[in-house]
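Take a look at the protein record below and tell me what you see:
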Amino acid sequence: MQASYRFLIDRFGSFRRLRGALLYWLAAQFLRDAPVVFMNYGYAGEGPDSAGPALLPEDIPDRLPVQLYHRLTADADMEGRAVLEISCGRGGGASYLMRYRKPASLLGVDRSPRLVEFCRRRHRHPGLRFSAGDAEDLDLADASYDIVVNVEASHCYGRMDRFLGSARRVVRPGGQMLWADFRPPEKIDSLRREFRDAGWEIELEEDISPNVLRAMEMGDRRWNELIERQIPKSLQAPFRETAGVRGSRIEQAIRHGRMTYLRCVLRRPLGAVAA
């Protein structure tokens, strides 16, 4: 019975990974000439937090997705550290962190070689590198990074436990993982168990669903115009779903509480050995 259960998990996980890989491939095909370097839903603050970070003029059009990285990394000191972004996508977040948070080095890893090549062409900064790699089986040395960043990607992974174990292995004892993604509310307790079972301590957990929803509303027009301009008619519907435009399943799920968007700060305990 246990073997059959694991087989089903692996099969479902493989399907989820395949679907994610297909969407990334399509995005790389049709958005290759578009000025798109972020593919997250963004973050919009309120009150004293509403202005967000001061940005260079070239980064202002991407303010909403930049603000998600800004919020996620607010509790981490990156200056002079070795940073790894797992599933870096089109590299906008890695570029922002390298230029604004001043780590000693930053490696962006993504499963798509096409996106890695895009990142290498588009983002050229001292200390910033990109490499193809599997989030669930990182080909990196043990305990080689101080901070790992993972933004809005893990819901596409086939095996969350493998990702969490692989990320923990490459982080030094005492190092952090800064994680942001969405889950159904009824799955959050099991998510916490997955973090702990993989050897991570949960230092901070914050529900940022209202801020992400506000950013989705503010970015709706830009994404719809981009999809209308870049994507063939026959594929526009799934791209609108992926982009989270108004009325999409994910937008409606967050709006009506069927999906919760979290940011978490996780830490590998001091003295822990590699898994």
